[in-house]
Amino acid sequence: MLVAFSSAAFAVDPPEPKFRAVTIDDKIQIGYGVAVADVDGDKLPDILLADKRQIVWYRNPGEVKQVASDVVVRMQWEKHIIAENLTPKDNVCLAAQDIDGDGKCELAIGAEWNPGDTVNSGAVFYLIAPEDRTQRWTPVKFPSVEPTTHRMRWLKLEGGKWGLVVLPLHGRGNKNGEGAPVKVLLYHPPTPLNDPAGEWKSEVINESMHMTHNLDVGGWPGFAGSSQLLLLCGREGVHEVWKRGPNWETGHHSVGRGAGGAGGVGEIRSGNTLSSRSFRATVEPMHGNMLVVSTFRQEPNAVDRNVLTDKLTEGHALACGDLLGVKSDQIVVGWRGAPGKEGSTTGVAVWTALDDKGGKWRETMIDPDGMACEDLQLADLNGDGKLDIVAAGRATRNVKIYFNETPASAR
Q1: Rounded to two decimals, what is the model's pTM?
Q2: What pLDDT sits at residue 83?
């Protein structure tokens, strides 16, 4: 599929993406969330997963092992359980980041997932790692949370400090997206960080939406390089939240059908074209069928909106990055399908801009039927300088790495 409007194309198209799929786990239950971070301090990116009742990590095996002159054994991604059965209901999200600078990631998770209970559901934990990180970690449960905990991200603050942003799905007591607004909380780590009795103080940084789904960090033309910009997406479209002095401010950008009240936005990620035009990729509506790219022009508040496809079934994962080494970002989208629904599909696809302004795009299907994608992330997992894709499948109950074997660009 190719979608285009008038724009100058490159003389040579970017290379067609090529990936090699490797299944590292085919026995997960749901795979709500995926993260990539160095867990054990060996300078290799590991994979973390928030599954239904378990939080696990898969150790990066590093280089292949030469066992004989003509025999090479590729080591396995060993699976280790971090925690399990922390709450009666499911885990739902996780955030991994080295926030103390020791080369090993810290980890927070969201649990007690029950979107129908907007009063008593929701839990947030910080997990204290043992000396041997293959053993169980110690959970520290936050005493004060908002119901329907759904997404979280570590956010870099002033002075090199970090905070944990937690995004609920609904406001407290909210019914059908109506009533109290969603309270977006920023938690500040205690000192010392790994004190089990330390207090994670929180502040409300936004109350502008009534039903959210996901968030991203950064990606607004006026805030290039800023780590203190959040993009929230949900029923009411896309809202920007940023720090100005001591206060958090909010703006609403006309990205997504939610700007007109027609279904909202379920996923959002930011990227850049070769000509440094910023764009936002969105899945619309929530759990939607459309992949949309909105590209910013030079004029203030001028945006070109381009529906790349309307053929997704429950679009649920999104990432932007330069997988092809062409100095512009591609869009990776995953959709999980609806088992039993006629015409339902699953898959992961890469969309590549074919011009310097993000007006003409090419679709490359990466996995058309083997990944009911719930979440995905981009990272260079084997150290070859190319971004790979890691994805978790809901109905397919698997975790896959798609190793990037795209030939070098001829540009």
Answers
A1: 0.92
A2: 98
